[in-house]
Design goal:
Helices cover about 25% and strands about 30% of the residues. The protein has about 325 residues and is an alpha+beta fold. A hairpin with a 4-residue loop joins strand 1 and strand 2. The chain starts with a helix and ends with a strand.
């Protein structure tokens, strides 16, 4: 019997060591981050544009950086998008604020998301002007997307035209010309502008704009700040060149286990190349091998606490310039 108990404990320990996720992965709430990335992915698939997640645009008036969930560049427009991952019944007060009641917790009141998103437009416009781009009138607009399938409302018609409710989000189809069902007619007829050169210029600027670092875990995304690696001195020394000033992106791959040797991980990373939009070609990627117990210290957006994530639970890390 004791042999069976000891054997069971060994098996459990091995399972937890090699297959269970890090505790901090479970502690960090990632649903809002996942919603932003899901919306960005669907926009790109539907309209073939480029989506930029987690922008931190400098605001000259406040001397701080303003967070933008998502900016989408298409052939016809530049969209500033706020993603609200709201579930339960949502209604609008007379002052424009939103009330969200999921039936489980006390109803919460949100400042008017549309007005908050509109305030980001002149900040982004000013930033682009400083980078040498003057946008034509009507080229830049905003949307608030509600992608949670548990979103409910009594009358979706009460929401401003800038809001895309869950039902409307599900009705978007590929091949449509932008948001033809929701965009204002004043924007139409802008084709006299040289859209393609402007489109390419915006992509180059936004591709190197300040952003949150992006940590991709197994089925989860987290925006925030990469701080450092932690682990055995030898492994940390191998990773010393991975700094935001030098590296734009890294991915993690497991190596095969030999007998009872500890699992090791291959870390592939791309040197930053500012001349080509911030990333290197595939031939320039570098590789190091470290222990799977090595950790990333990462501080999620809107959190005062840094979290540790084992490299074995990490798929990729993208560092802002």
């Amino acid at each position: 019997m004791w042999f069976a108990i000891v054997g069971g404990l060994i098996v459990y320990g091995l399972f937890k060591l090699f297959f269970a996720g890090d505790d901090d992965v479970m502690e960090v709430e990632t649903s809002d981050f996942n919603a932003i990335f899901a919306v960005a992915s669907r926009f790109e698939k539907l309209y073939g544009g480029n989506a930029y997640v987690g922008l931190r645009i400098p605001d000259a008036d406040t001397g701080s950086r303003q967070n933008i969930d998502l900016v989408v560049v298409t052939k016809e427009e530049l969209l500033v998008i706020s993603v609200k991952n709201l579930s339960g019944f949502v209604s609008i007060n007379s002052d424009g604020s939103w009330v969200c009641d999921d039936g489980k917790h006390k109803a919460k009141t949100l400042p008017n998301p549309v007005e908050e998103t509109k305030q980001l437009i002149p900040i982004l416009e000013s930033y682009l002007e400083q980078r040498g781009v003057d946008l034509p009138a009507g080229y830049l607009s905003c949307k608030v997307v509600l992608p949670n399938p548990k979103f409910r409302t009594i009358d979706s018609g009460l929401f401003p035209s800038e809001v895309i409710t869950y039902d409307q989000w599900m009705q978007l189809k590929p091949g449509h010309s932008s948001f033809s069902g929701w965009m204002k007619g004043a924007f139409r007829g802008k084709k006299e502008f040289q859209e393609e050169p402007l489109d390419q210029k915006l992509k180059a600027i936004l591709g190197t704009a300040p952003m949150w670092d992006k940590l991709e875990l197994k089925g989860k995304y987290i925006l925030g700040d990469f701080l450092e690696f932690r682990g055995k001195e030898e492994d940390v020394d191998y990773l010393r060149d991975i700094k935001r000033s030098k590296i734009s992106h890294l991915t993690i791959q497991k190596t095969s286990m030999l007998g009872f040797a500890p699992t090791r991980l291959q870390v592939l990373y791309a040197p930053r190349d500012y001349r080509s939009g911030g990333s290197a070609s595939a031939s320039e990627w570098r590789e190091v091998t470290v222990r799977s117990s090595t950790e990333i210290l990462f501080q999620p957006q809107n959190s005062t606490k840094a979290r540790k994530f084992k490299l074995s639970s990490v798929i990729s890390l993208t560092l802002s310039a």
